[in-house]
Amino acid sequence: MALPPERLDRFARHIVLPEIGGAGQHALAKAHVVLVGVGGIGSPALQYLAGAGIGKLSVIDDDRVEPSNLQRQTIFSECDAGKQKAELAALWVQEFDSSAEVHWHAERLDRENAAGLVDNADLVLDGCDNFATRLAVSDACVTAHVPLVSAAVGRFQGQVGAFAGHLPGQPCYRCFVGEAFDADDCDTCAEDGVLGAMVGWTGTFAALQAIRVLLAPTGGLGDPQWGRLHVLNGLEPSLRTMTIAKDPQCRSCSAF
Questions:
Q1: Three-class SS of residue 250?
Q2: Domain total of the chain
Q3: Gap between the Cα atoms of 230 and 202, Å rounded
Q4: What residues contact 215, with CB distance under 8 A and at least 6 apart?
Q5: Closest by alpha carbon to 234, among 67, 36, 72, 74?
Q6: Residue 48 lies in a domain
Q7: Which one is catalytic: 141, 172, 189, 253?
Q8: Residue closest to 202 by CA, chosen among 34, 25, 39, 14
Q9: pLDDT digits (tens, 9 = 90+) for 38-86
Q10: How far apart are CA 83 and CA 88, in angstroms?
Q11: pLDDT at 189
Q12: Residue 184: its pLDDT value, please?
């Protein structure tokens, strides 16, 4: 199915790229991405996923906007204080691209509701701020056979990795962090601080990796880089990559 003329013009700079082309842009238009968290990582990720022409976006966040968020959460403004982030994120998408389908869920993702929230997604991008949610997302993705791009940031360092634990030989996020972090306790940017631009770099890099995964079936940007964790250093600056091995004892993905 061809893109309508007005969409061809909107995404012309994508379509002229041999790595994307019309087939790749059509794949993005048919994709459903679930975004967990629309804070510092999720805000720029959402902007560039919408900008890429992702056809359907589902946004999950139970938090409300606070003035301290505005240092790094780029889709909100001063007048949004106290309002639901998920709803505002959906409104941002609707105003940015009226053709995009967007759904919002002002609830906290946990083990009880994770399966329903990631169901029918082509990819989940997780930018939440605690390990319990990250692991609930990861386990649900493995069960539902949905690829996951997981992103995190602290101070001047970001981490972005693509996981597909449902595929033979490929690790899941739980293989990376193990069982010790299966709890709500983790460092927060309120305690440790974070550079707003560092969060933006991490979020946009996560969007790039999500697009890479979605384009993999068309040849697109090459290898989806399963199990590759990219560590972004904002102080040097630099980027290094490590490979995460599949844990044969992982209680989430070892059966695959």
A1: coil
A2: 1
A3: 10
A4: 19, 20, 24, 27, 28, 221
A5: 72
A6: yes
A7: 189
A8: 39
A9: 999 999 999 999 999 999 999 999 999 999 999 999 999 999 999 999 9
A10: 7
A11: 62
A12: 55
Task: Examine the residue annotation and report whether 253 is marked as an active-site residue of this protein.
Answer: no
**Is 176 among the domain residues?**
yes
Going through the chain in order, the beta strands assigned E by DSSP cover 32-36, 56-60, 101-105, 123-126, 148-154, 157-163, 228-233, 238-243
Residue pLDDT, tens place only, 77-119:
999 999 999 999 999 999 999 999 999 999 999 999 999 999 9
Structural contact between residues 194 and 155, judged by C-beta atoms closer than 8 angstroms: yes
Average pLDDT over residues 26-49: 97
For position 183, what pLDDT does the model report?
A: 56
The larger pLDDT score, comparing residue 119 to residue 35, is at 35
3-state secondary structure of 235: coil
Domain range for 184 is: 31-243
CB 45 within 8 A of CB 125: yes
Q: What is the pLDDT of residues 190-213, one digit of tens each?
A: 667 889 999 999 999 999 999 999
Torsion angles phi and psi, residue 24, rounded to 5: -70, -40
| Of 104, 72, 99, 101, nearest in space to 88 by CA | 104
Tell me what percent of the residues of the chain surpass a pLDDT of 90.
88
CA distances from 184 to 147, 170, 247 (A): 23, 26, 23
CATH of the domain at 104: 3.40.50.720
d(CA 23, CA 254): 34
In this structure, is residue 169 part of a structural domain?
yes
DSSP label at residue 195: -
Packing angle between helix 85-96 and helix 42-51, nearest 10 degrees? 20
The one-letter amino acid code at 110 reads D
248 part of a folded domain: no
